[in-house]
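Let's study a protein:

___
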Amino acid sequence: MDVNASGLHTVFGPVPSRRFGRSLGVDVIPKKLCSMDCVYCEVGRTTMRDIIRKEYIPTSWILRELALRLALRPPIDCVTFSGSGEPTLHAGLGHMICMVKGMTDVPVVVLTNGSLLWKEDVRQDLLAADIVSPSLDAVSEDIFRRVDRPHPRLSAVQVIDGMCKFRKEFKGTYLLEMLFVSGINDGDEEVLRLRDAAKRIAPDKIQVNTILRPPAESWAKPVDHERLLKIRDMLGPMAEIIAPTSLKAGVPSMNMSQDDVLALLRRRAMTVDEIAEAANIDRQAAETTLAVLRVAGLATLVDFGGRQYFDATRD
């Protein structure tokens, strides 16, 4: 993998995505700059919380690294702007989306917390994407602040209004994700408020999710499957539960180096088997690579939900 002049890997993967298949990730924000500090975030706690858009990493560096990776013709299903923070904070996002559309025929996806869609320039930047997936975890202001811990200048009403405006302008696929944390936003009253908000937003799908990897806060717990089924039913026929998936059988992957594996772990905790699939190596080789990273102090082993995950050592 190419490393830009900042020393950062801005392109990572392909990563096995539960929703989009084999995704080549593009990380346009330093870790961890975000407009929120969600208790469930698998990247960890937010260290820089802001809503000001800037070119935090030079656009030219990101596009160069992406062009080099795409030139290798990796077997991917999409290119996804996501990673270590909120991608819409990057002022060059719209230009990058348009440039990627000229580099590859696969869909361009943007995963966003949706907090900045009230800004007209953000909405304009996202219009060229094929799929945009904002997150809405709460409608009640107190619950919004408990689960998403937003920037002080953000409110749930403002976020929802921005999502509604974007729906009217965006012609691509609009997927509204709702992530539920046990005991915080999974009560019937809040689910019904979310249902009503979703009717206003009118996405193509509501994707119901819960915590599946080690979260930023150890006390944040997932909602059990039975409760997720009830929540899905309460949200209506557009709602679906996002189920874990594996990579497509018979599709070759990229051969990844130790640095590539570490770049993956910096964005999300992964199991040995997930690393083996993503890196196109057998399980023993994945275990060896992870053991080397642990000895070097670059990765740690985390138990969550009865499974063992490897995570990049967090600062």
The first strand starts at residue 11 and ends at 17.
